[in-house]
Amino acid sequence: MLIEIDFNSPEAIYIQLRNQIVMAIARERLHDGDSLPSVRSLAGTIGVNMHTVNKAYAMLREEGYLKLDRRKGAVVSVETAGKDKELDKINDYMQMIVAQAICKEISREEITRMVDEMYEEFRLL
Amino acid sequence: MLIEIDFNSPEAIYIQLRNQIVMAIARERLHDGDSLPSVRSLAGTIGVNMHTVNKAYAMLREEGYLKLDRRKGAVVSVETAGKDKELDKINDYMQMIVAQAICKEISREEITRMVDEMYEEFRLL
DNA sequence: TATCTGATATAGTAATTCTATAACAGATGG
DNA sequence: CCATCTGTTATAGAATTACTATATCAGATA
Question: CB distance from A117 to chain B under 8 Å?
Answer without folding.
Answer: no
